[in-house]
Specification:
alpha+beta, 10% strand
């Protein structure tokens, strides 16, 4: 929890009992710290950008 910052991506593995048990408390604590959640898809620029082989978004100009 102390390493969470604005823009952090938190990966949870689905289908494990431990994740299902821990998730509600973790989300509550993160929200209490003032953070909000969105999907990775919401964070990716869609127009005039590509995602390169390193996963970095690169502006391409007007396509």
């Amino acid at each position: 929890m102390p390493r969470i910052r604005n823009g952090s991506i938190i990966l949870f593995h689905a289908g494990t009992e431990q994740t299902a048990e821990a998730l509600p408390a973790l989300l509550e604590e993160i929200r209490a710290d003032g953070y909000v959640f969105s999907t990775v898809g919401d964070l990716i620029y869609k127009e005039n950008y590509i995602v390169n082989h390193e996963g970095r978004q690169i502006q391409t100009g007007n396509m």
